[in-house]
Amino acid sequence: MIIMEVKKNCIEEFGQMVFTGFLSVDSLKESLTLRQVPDVSGVYLVLRISDVAPVFLESGTGGFFKGKDPNVPIEELKANWVDGTNVLYVGKATSLRKRLGQYIRFGQGKPVGHWGGRYIWQLSDSENLILCWKTVNVSEDPDVFETELIDRFRSIYGCRPFANLTK
User: What is the pTM for the complete model shown?
Assistant: First the structure.
C-alpha cells in the first residue's frame, strides 16, 4: 500500500512517465535482485517512503572515492532537505543495472565513482530507500530525461531534489 502511494506521488510530480522496479536499497545489495534491473539506458529515482522527519548521520556509509570524504555537515543536509516529496534523487544511466550497482556499492562504503547523490548515504534509514527506473530507447538520451525530471521537480518545489547537487 505504501509503494502504491509513492507511485501515485511520482505520477503527480513527473506527469505520465511510467517508472518500474520500486526495490529497496537493502534488497538491491543481493546480486539476484540487482539482476532484475534492466541492462539498458534510463533514468532512476531514489525515493523515501517514510513520513517521519529524516535523521542525518555525521558520518554516513558512502565510500571515499579517490580519498575524498563523501560526508558533509548535518546543517548542509538540513538545508538541502525538501519537505513534501518522496523524491530524493534523480539519476541517469547508460546501463541502469551497472549504475545502480555502483550506487549501492558506494553506499556500502566501497570506493566507487558514484559521487552524485552521496547525501543519501547520510540518512539513517538509507537501506529502506526505494529505487525505481524508467528505461529509454536506444535513440533517446538519458541526459535529456534526467534534466526534464529535475526541471519538473524544480518547477514544483523551487529547488533540485535533496541529493541532486550542482557541485
Answer: 0.89
